What we know:
- The chain is α+β, with helices and mostly antiparallel strands and about 180 residues long.
- It has 3 helices and 12 strands, in the order ββββαββββββββαα.
- It is rod-shaped and about 145 Å long.
Amino acid sequence: SNASVNGMNLVLVNGHGYKEPHYPASIDDAEQIYNWFRKHYKRRTAAEKGQDAGTARVAGSETGTVDLVLAEDVTLDLPSEADTHLVYDIPSFVKAPVEEGEVLGRLDVYAYDRLAGSFDLVAEGSAGRTYFLTLTRAAERITGGRVWIISLGLILLGIIFAVMSLPGPVKRRKKRKHF
């Protein structure tokens, strides 16, 4: 038999015993089981599709971060009194480029400290790759944030070196007149 109980579609397969002649016991068994499910279980939506799930750092991108959202509704059939908690598994960083909708993390739903379901976390937007910012950020980390001062100093040293390496004034020979 099958039934819809609290939004859950249940299928019950049981044997053919008879309670009375021509009255299968399976009918009473099914009723008791379906009523038990109605009383003790319900369909629960822990989070909805598109709900904000956090932010991931994107190494080598113009934006530096990308927002993560749930790819689908987080809906599970759980005991009514289930002690549930959500665990977001988001990497410390991902490498650019990142496309919108790309799977970057996972949401695990636990009921009674047992994994009840896993759901994808996807990028809400995209993050392109840029090499200039990657080099700049690496230089900032190395120099402790003084990359622009050091860069300006290196540019000035390069200009001075270029000017000093220019040849001096060219002496022109006077044309001699031969007699």
